[in-house]
Design brief:
The chain contains four helices and nine strands, in the order H-E-H-E-E-H-E-E-H-E-E-E-E. By secondary structure, it is α+β, with helices and mostly antiparallel strands.
Length: 197
């Protein structure tokens, strides 16, 4: 009985350490030294953060925000929503939908298309992370998915260095289906900063 108890505790510890190691690897691969996530004051995570457009305009001109070759700030306002991706409507299985501007694919440097193309503004298109595609084979490029009041076209699949973003859906932030009639604040800003001297 004692041996069985020790074996059970050892097995639980091995599973726990494996889980923690995998979680650490996934979280560390999602960022780099110069990529920042800017949240509103007091927000515990990106889905609870709300940043006004006025604040975004102030942040754009800060010298800490890196610029591209055209001196445009490498800053990506992003909005989030939960999407039930389950084919069985009795079972709810949510994925995070991230609305982004085209610059997001330069701010998040490890993003790579593995199939299809990035969403085209106004076309109601999604790109699916490769981990989400594995779990939900119905979300293949070329297929449609009904969400909200419309059908969305799956335009492509992306990878992101094995990060948690590979379990997300990305779409264009300006797609009319993503916006409410009045301007809404963004949930977070992803920005690339300059190296400290």
């Amino acid at each position: 009985m004692t041996v069985l108890g020790i074996a059970l505790v050892a097995m639980i510890l091995i599973i726990l350490f494996g889980f923690v190691g995998g979680l650490r690897r996934t979280l560390l691969s999602a960022g780099t030294d110069n990529n920042w996530v800017i949240l509103s004051r007091g927000a515990p995570d990106e889905t609870a953060s709300f940043i006004s457009h006025d604040t975004i305009d102030v942040l754009r001109v800060l010298p800490e925000i890196a610029g591209d070759d055209d001196r445009q700030p490498l800053m990506s306002p992003e909005v989030f929503a939960g999407v039930n991706v389950s084919q069985n409507k009795r079972v709810k299985e949510f994925a995070l939908q991230r609305g982004v501007a085209p610059i997001a694919y330069r701010v998040h440097r490890n993003m790579r298309l593995t199939a299809g193309h990035w969403p085209i503004r106004g076309k109601g298109e999604w790109v699916i992370g490769q981990k989400l595609e594995v779990r939900h084979p119905s979300l293949q490029p070329g297929s449609k998915f009904h969400y909200g009041r419309r059908d969305w076209n799956i335009a492509g699949v992306f990878s992101d260095n094995d990060s948690a973003r590979e379990s997300e859906i990305w779409t264009d932030i300006e797609d009319p289906a993503n916006r409410r009639p009045s301007p809404q604040p963004e949930h977070e800003l992803a920005a690339r900063g300059v190296k400290a001297r």
